[in-house]
Amino acid sequence: MLLRGEPGTGKSQLAHAAAVALNRLFVYEVVNAHTEGQDLLWKFDAVSRLAEAQTIKAGDDKKALLDTKLFISPGVLWWALDWDNACEVYDKSHYQLSLPEKPENWQQPLPGGNGKDGGQYGINLAAIFLLSTVSTAT
Questions:
Q1: 82 within domain boundaries
Q2: Which one of 51, 77, 89, 127 is least enclosed by Cβ atoms within 10 Å?
Q3: Three-state secondary structure call for residue 50
Q4: What is the pLDDT of residues 15-43, one digit of tens each?
Q5: How far apart are CA 102 and CA 38, in angstroms?
């Protein structure tokens, strides 16, 4: 679902209501001019990793403390396509953005499902991208 409109017009509420009504996973991302395609898959917190590097003392396991996996947060497409793996990465990460809502009784369909609700890949989701129009007129 792709919604576009002025800020405050109810795009998020409409998307959430649609996901709840269809018992779909509600995962959303607000897309703007600064959003890159990679942001939909994952985000990396280089600043926190640098801060962690500055606190390392002699004898600390640098490789384990600075493992890049600790500073990754899954994006909306990762959550939508592989909820379980995204949860594992999210739980281990120091960089935890908001955790998406999962409907009660929702289960990730297996790949190659029966074609209902998930098509050939067995995906059962509502990935919501919200575009806000920002007026540049003065």
A1: yes
A2: 51
A3: helix
A4: 888 877 877 777 777 777 888 888 888 88
A5: 23
